[in-house]
Amino acid sequence: MANIEKSILQEKFQPAIIDAAKSEELSKPSLSFWQDSWMRVRKNKAAIVSLVILAIIIIMAFLGPAISGKKADDQNVKHANLPAKIEVLENVSWLPFDGTMVNKAGVEIDMYEKKSVDEYYWFGTDSLGRDIFTRLWKGTQISLYIALLAAVIDMVIGVSYGAISGYFGGRLDNVMQRITEVLTGIPNLIVVVLMILVLEPGILSITIALSITGWVSMARVVRAQVLKLKEQEYVLAARTLGSSHAKIIFKHLVPNLAGVIIINTMFTIPSAIFFEAFLSFIGLGLQAPAASLGTLIEDGFKSLMTYPHMLIFPAITISLIMICFNMVADGLRDALDPKMRD
Amino acid sequence: MMEKILEVKDLNISFHTFSGEVQAIRGVDFDLYKGETLAIVGESGSGKSVTTKSIMRLLPPGNSEIKRGEILFEGKNLAKLSEKEMQKVRGKDISMIFQDPMTSLNPTMKIGKQIMEPILKHHKISKKDAKLRAMELLELVGIPKVEERFNQYPHQFSGGMRQRVVIAIALACDPKILIADEPTTALDVTIQAQILELMKDLQQKIDTSIIFITHDLGVVANVADRVAVMYGGKIVEVGTVDEIFYNPQHPYTWGLISSMPDLDSRGKDLYVIPGTPPDLLNPPKGDAFAARNAYAMQIDLEEQPPMFKVSDTHYAATWLLHPDAPEVVPPEAVVKRREYFLSMNGGK
Amino acid sequence: MAEKKVLLDVKNLKQYFNQGKSNEVKAIDDVSFQIYEGETLGLVGESGCGKSTTGRTIIRLYEATDGEVLFRGKNVHGKKTKAEMLEFNHKMQMIFQDPYASLNPRMKISDIIAEGIDIHGLAKTKTERLEQVYKLLETVGLSKEHANRYPHEFSGGQRQRIGIARALAVQPDFIIADEPISALDVSIQAQVVNLMKKLQEEKGLTYLFIAHDLSMVKYISDRIGVMYFGKLVELTTSEELYENPLHPYTKSLLSAIPQPDPISERTRRRVAYNPSVHNYAEGEEVKMREVKPGHFVLCSEKEFHQYQQQLNNN
Prior knowledge:
heterotrimer, A: 342 residues, mainly alpha, two-stranded antiparallel sheet, 12 helices, 2 strands, disordered N terminus, B: 348 residues, alpha/beta, 8-stranded mixed sheet, 4-stranded antiparallel sheet, 35% helix
């Protein structure tokens, strides 16, 4: 801390010209909320990989049946119980795609030869000779429909219900919350059974069951956030400016709930998918001959010991879908959770 | 000459963030003497909290880095100690109290237990003795009905009382240094006054050195023996409390002193330091304060000023103190203070 | 003083939370005062005294339990049509304390500032709206470039100025500033306060300045009211309050403020306030009495005479 005896040019001591406006400038580029969040998601490798897998599955769900060349309902009993066989890959001995099976004696038999089948069934056939590959993707379509349905119901019913309940509070909130409590008290299965009594088991009854109860967790989460946010000063400012309630809810509250809404939706989707599969599995959902991942698993389950391929392919598919959605949801939560920001 | 108890030399600390490296501390040097209260004054982003947290090594290990410098305490360099070794220092030799009394205490643990915690950790005494010591401390910090209060939870105390408990915990092991990071900022004026009185009183009794961080110059005038003014990650001026308030040399200190209204400011505009604090992501080349400095010279834009000596106890980092620099007239408020001080002391 | 018009008349305002229950809180307990056109009234007190609640009740963010708030003679509370409420919102605005919570983090600055313009239909075209936003940004010392940015990119002081721009957008006559500088650094406080003074001169605004930092309040206010646990205990001009504080709480408050002046700090003695020092008898009427023209103190008849004595002796 001493004087530096440096000789400094006299001109250096002239007053500097300072532009005061410059000090108000913002140097960093403007990042919107979404750009910022996307940057964070990108860092989570698991989420990105899951997103890619999901994208592939979605594409295949629509492409699959088209390229297989077979119909989901076509039965051909002569071609029943064939293991999977894929061109090119059949020559790779350690992959299960060569159309062979090991029988009880431990001998590997080429089933296609045995039954003199020329066509290739990429994932094999079931007990009625239907192509599993095509049925699998058709089933995935149904799962995706359920996913979309769950998301829409969550966002439309769940968000509005929770936002209104939380924003207005008081009596209205009390009543609305009691209603949700009753709804959660009723097990989903009971609702479905009730629907079956009225309608036939199928996609419609599942849709209605989900519509009645699937949005409750979203409503709760949204309400909790709204209770917190409505005391924030920017909401108070909007009130003092004379903003109407609707404007406040949709312009001020909902955009700040986006993170919570997306995360919750992403977590609801896999459970909705599983719900349908489970119902179909126990026979209360889609019925034969409809192809859903649940019915496929149910069929395959019966022949687990003898023809495992019938169970494995749909089981892997549904597991993959659920795991990927959960990974993506996890990644999104880390990215969108404001408390975890630097 | 008083005994030095802490020496911070050329401390440089950076944070690695999403957008790049933020140079939060860019070369800080200061000493702390036994039994004194050193106030560190600065605004948000000046680096005062980072400095003290680094002394306690409480910065998040993931994205902070002590790039250079030493923190010398009792012959050890705290910057280089392992976590285990630091744990022996924290709470025992160096304690810290924070701003928010609401979150400084564990809401699910009884007060008595929280005070006993550091005592039991650092001393080998029985629980019974620790309890006695804890009750002594509660009395020392002015909490009435000690028996009853010992078994209560934080939510049963008011803000001011909680801060007293926090002080009790910090002083439990008779630390040599107490770091107080804005301990009264969140408190009402009258409670603040009580806590400041308490701290000064305790300092006398326990003979501990205090580093007091604040942005409130009134509080500084009340508690400090010496003052260090921080701006843009550096100390720009340091001196005794009288020197800083009555004979400041750095334009930033002038700005701070002048922007406070005093008894006859009414009707006049307050002196304003224009603009906002610098972005430490890209610190400016020369003096970090230059862009807001009405007294800036060409050289301020090019080179960072070194510390110039004003007296044995008073240093300021401004090119205005260079022997070749022109004479400038500080703002009116500062001139008045100099005159006032001289009149009270019959010439310096 | 020239004959001043009363802009805001607060009469016997009461705000009780959880009324009648065991945890009843009398946040505002029978408070009355007036604010004249063009003046700045400071309202000070410590946490829990009710000053923020008073501000928010005046602007009807909270419903008053009892009493009236007359803005230019019309009661802000009570049954009002949407149009009537909009009229109040047009003329009465608020600036908030927390620069980090007072701006919607997901809205662009131009939308934040223009919200009032949109609600009250003050701009007919998009260009007009943008023009008004730019003008407001300039008024508060920011620039056009800032209009497309988001709140998190600004510092506390800048955000506070954006909040001021938002309030000004509807061209109000009266602004309630609820601790507008408490969360800002000292040098930034001066910026905001200077701005508010400038705006007051240029636009003829009236302010209710709520704060706990007495030195700033004294600087900016013409008159100051001191609150303690829901009651107004003293009300007079800034100079008078500092030179002749009468209520013991006011004296205690003033004695507790640290001054940036080490010499005086070494000799300052704090006076603590103990409510029992009043020793009010059962049924003694305690109300605001004018001890000196323009100087009101909450006291009993006995104390009233004591205070008058004190003033005469000075």
